[in-house]
Q: What sequence folds into this?
């Protein structure tokens, strides 16, 4: 059990459709720690990006290779811009073992962004619906499943009341944000707005979830090359990239395994004293 601290736990990781992605690295890390793994994917989004869609069967097979003895896995496709899919995804994940203990909201809409002059109601809504709204709704449904129903009806806005103190965390939730507070993100206004909302509300939601024994942290992985900084699949100019990297602390961008290692540790009892934080895991990029 020391080597497999997540044995018997079930993790739902959203946005796992490419082996180059942070979601895939996180799913395989949690699997290696002993967890049962449920992954969510929306392959249609990847088809629209320069990096293209991956082979979903290969994604499934490689996740299974990381499972420990008797651990299970499954996956579900869903467009989380549709709020009706929230319950379906949680239902599917819960059906694997009876409950979900860890929720990693890694999914995100990218591409087709723009400057402030490009913003329209529809463009802003598209990013909000996927990146922020669905994350909040997934978290709410996850928490409802883990908490006992209140003895009396609770009015909207009334503070949550749990069964403190807890011997151990009742669940873990992870949100993913970006570096929007550490520097400008020109040309990504809709994306930065939706991610800033998650970072900004982390403390408020974490406080409420903690009353139920659920731990929420938000991770800013910094610049991680998930394929979008490879010349053949990039969606931006890579001019002078090597010169820039030479000025950074480690001379490289992050890899998907970097934030995955952090999430893996935070999911265990060893990392469970960290609560309600927006954690930057960027190898010092924000300091250079």
A:
């Amino acid at each position: 059990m020391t080597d497999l601290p997540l044995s018997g736990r079930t993790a739902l990781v959203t946005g796992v459709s490419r082996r180059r992605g942070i979601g895939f690295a996180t799913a395989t890390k949690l699997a290696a720690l002993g967890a049962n793994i449920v992954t969510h994917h929306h392959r249609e989004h990847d088809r629209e990006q320069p990096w293209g869609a991956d082979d979903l069967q290969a994604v499934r097979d490689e996740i299974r290779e990381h499972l420990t003895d008797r651990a299970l896995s499954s996956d579900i496709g869903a467009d989380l811009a549709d709020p009706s899919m929230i319950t379906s995804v949680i239902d599917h994940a819960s059906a694997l073992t009876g409950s979900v203990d860890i929720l990693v909201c890694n999914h995100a809409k990218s591409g087709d962004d723009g400057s402030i002059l490009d913003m329209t109601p529809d463009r802003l809504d598209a990013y909000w619906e996927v990146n922020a709204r669905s994350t909040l709704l997934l978290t709410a449904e996850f928490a409802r499943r883990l908490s006992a129903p209140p003895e009396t009806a609770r009015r909207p806005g009334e503070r949550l009341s749990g069964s403190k103190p807890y011997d151990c965390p009742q669940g873990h939730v992870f949100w993913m944000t970006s570096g929007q507070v550490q520097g400008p993100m020109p040309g990504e206004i809709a994306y930065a707005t939706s991610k800033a909302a998650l970072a900004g509300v982390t403390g408020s939601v974490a406080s409420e979830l903690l009353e139920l024994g659920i731990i929420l942290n938000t991770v800013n992985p910094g610049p991680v090359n998930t394929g979008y900084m490879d010349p053949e699949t990039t969606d931006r100019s890579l001019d002078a990239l090597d010169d820039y990297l030479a000025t950074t602390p480690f001379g490289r961008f992050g890899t998907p395994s970097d934030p995955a290692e952090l999430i893996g540790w935070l999911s265990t009892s060893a990392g469970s004293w960290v609560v309600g934080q927006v954690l930057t895991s960027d190898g010092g990029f924000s300091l250079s």
